Structures are given as structure tokens and as C-alpha cells.
Amino acid sequence: MRFLILVLVSLLAGCSTSAWLGSSAKQSPKQAPPMRSVHSYVGELATQLSQYSKPLKPGVSVAVTSFFKDNGLGADTLNNQGAGLSNQVQESFITYLTQMGLQVVEFRMQKAINLSDSADSVLSRDIEKLKDRHKFDLILTGSVSESINSYTIHARLIDMVNSKTMSAASISLPKETLWGTEQVQMRDGLLHRGQY
């Protein structure tokens, strides 16, 4: 009899433990996969560009420009478009193209290193501080189209001699890649509401 009671208590203890473990597993939220970065999306774009491009001559050089919003390409609307996504795309392309073996021309290079008390720099967008001339064979440029939930980045590799597009690629990246999943955010001085 004692043996039967001991077995019964053991079974009940095991059932309650497994029920408790099952309920705690159900209550813990599932971990969402880590959010992809803008850099990883640009890596896909760089791969697309290389797949659709004709083989390039050895030693070919390329310059990478900023990627502006496609509805704001007028000369008076380019100011302040470089912040955020535009700069991230440009910098990531410079990294990927260099890693792919292309000679990337850094046209933002100053004539001299600029020193201050807290930092030093050699890159600038001030024309007066830049080296006089740069020569490159290709230019990588593009634009960004905005929709409700995403940005589509369009990239083109263009021959500087004849202005012909050598290769083109596009990719769509969710806005939450940049802004996270907050429901209400302040961006560029404007209040934006996410989807509920």
C-alpha cells in the first residue's frame, strides 16, 4: 500500500511539474528574429548589381553618391536629404564595393587633415576644402522611393563616358528597419503614427 501511495504521489508531482513547465513556456513571449540592418539590405543590392553587370575592366574606378528621395531631386530640395537613410546607403555601398574589389574613389577627400580639439577628419562636403579633381570610370547613384510601410532603394551603376546604365537593382526595406516598432515617433520635426 505504501508503495502504491508513493507511486501515485510521484506521478502527481510529475504531472504538476510538466503542467507548470508547459504553462510557463506558453506565457513567455516568443523572441522575434533580430531586425535586419540597412547595411545588410545594401549588401543584397550590391550583389544584385554585380550579377547584372557586364564584367568590368580590371582597375575600373567608381564614385558613390548620396541616394535622395525620388520626389525631391530638384536643386533647391536636396538640402537636408543626406541625413539618415541616404548617408547610410552611400556609406554601406562604399564598404561593399571596396570589399568586392572595385577601386572606390573618395571624392570627399580634403586637401589636408582637419584637426580640432576633440576630433580630426579628412572627409568633407565643402567644395572649397576638397581636392581639385577626381577621375573615375563609373558612378554609383540612385534614389529612394517612399511608401506607407517601406522604402524602395533603386541603385544604378553608370558609365561616366557615355552615361549609359551598366547595371541596376532595387530592394525594398521596411520602415521599421530605421525607426523600430514604436507607434508614435518624431522624425524630421514631424509626428508620425505607426500602424496599430
TrEMBL record:
Residue ranges constituting the FlgO domain according to the UniProt record: 44-176
Keyword Signal applies: yes
Key words of the record: Signal
Signal peptide limits: 1-21
Record-linked InterPro entries: FlgO, FlgO_dom
Protein name per UniProt: FlgO family outer membrane protein
Organism whose genome encodes this protein: Pseudoalteromonas obscura
